[in-house]
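We now fix the convention by which a protein and its fold are recorded. Think of the row as the fold of the chain written in a discrete alphabet. Here is one such record, which you should read through line by line.
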Amino acid sequence: SATVDPDLMPIQEANSELQEADTLSDDKGVATVDLQVVDEHGVPLIGQRRENYRIDLRSKAPELTEIRERLMKSKPGDEFNMELETFGKKSEPAGKKPFKVLVKKLEKFVAPELTDEFAKKVSGGKMESLDALKKDIEHELEHYYEEKAEEELRSKIAEELLKTNEFEVPESMVDEYLNDLTEELKKESQNQEIDESFVKERYRESAVRSVKWNLLAAAIIQKEGLKVDDAVLERTAADEATKYRMDRSKLLDFYKNSNDVKNKLLFNEMFNFIVDNADIKVVDRESSHEHED
């Protein structure tokens, strides 16, 4: 069986291949079934049949719990009756119906062996060995946790500043923010109908907070004369190019012409300024939880 390495497991699973099997020992597999709705006497109802329906047993969907457990004990060719949840055209629940289930095929996910060849394949030839791939993943994970810690710190800074700087925000700005949000949600839902008044009520509090924070941040940036100059853009392009293995000069050109990037960097400058001028205590979470048992 394939070696298990916790850092490499997600990549291993993503590159697993399906192989036909007589039985499944766990939920790492797919079952292909025919589903036939039957009446209370077990007689098939015409026009209510689905053939070659594939069920991914890794799915945690609650309506699949019973059939998943049953399929893990089945073999190809098995037939059984079971009540299953059905759904309408818009994926809304439409109640349970009795089905006859025919198991046509079982396939299990087989993880690839962890070899240097595997490392080359999944990295598109960038990593020559498994050790190099592991180091690269460890570096990515470190970077991820550093970013999470940074996000948490920024969120706390924003919270503190908002708490100590109470002020009213113009209603027109809150309305504009909510209108933009509603338009964004419409785009995301492919113009399906959206209850605008519900959205505006639900997100009003966070809209007030966002507007307040943007105004406060703008005031700090202005008061302290913070700006994004070429040196900041060049340093950021160099860092990001190394991190994402991209062309530095192309990134720099993009950054120089993107207001979104410049705004983001301006906020970075502001947070760096606050951190440099604030008294921040770092709490080690692990030691603070040591005596909780």
